[in-house]
Amino acid sequence: MDFPHGLRHLVLCTFRTDISDEQYALLVREFARLKEAIPVVRHFEHGLNNSPEGLADGYTDCFTLLFDGVAGRDAYLLDPAHLRFVELLKPWLAKVLVVDYVPGPVV
């Protein structure tokens, strides 16, 4: 799906080694459900790193959310559903990196 406009919110994660398959599946499912719970989330996707370059720095999972702009992202960050999810997620994270950007013109 092509989204030429809007703000992308990328969340790269590495989960703790003691996470069970069931707990992992629950976290991915609950992250995806934020799209239904928080109207400013325009799109959600999740995928596993499969880059052959060896530059992932240990990150295994990528979550991408799309917002119309900064205001939507800011509302999402403060939304009670997001805050509850963060509390569910945090204990299972070994490492996390968050990057937000608005696609710009190619120069």
UniProtKB/TrEMBL annotation:
<comment type="subunit">
    <text>Homodimer.</text>
</comment>
<dbReference type="InterPro" id="IPR044662">
    <property type="entry name" value="HS1/DABB1-like"/>
</dbReference>
<protein>
    <submittedName>
        <fullName>Dabb family protein</fullName>
    </submittedName>
</protein>
<dbReference type="InterPro" id="IPR013097">
    <property type="entry name" value="Dabb"/>
</dbReference>
<dbReference type="Pfam" id="PF07876">
    <property type="entry name" value="Dabb"/>
</dbReference>
<feature type="domain" description="Stress-response A/B barrel">
    <location>
        <begin position="7"/>
        <end position="101"/>
    </location>
</feature>
<dbReference type="InterPro" id="IPR011008">
    <property type="entry name" value="Dimeric_a/b-barrel"/>
</dbReference>
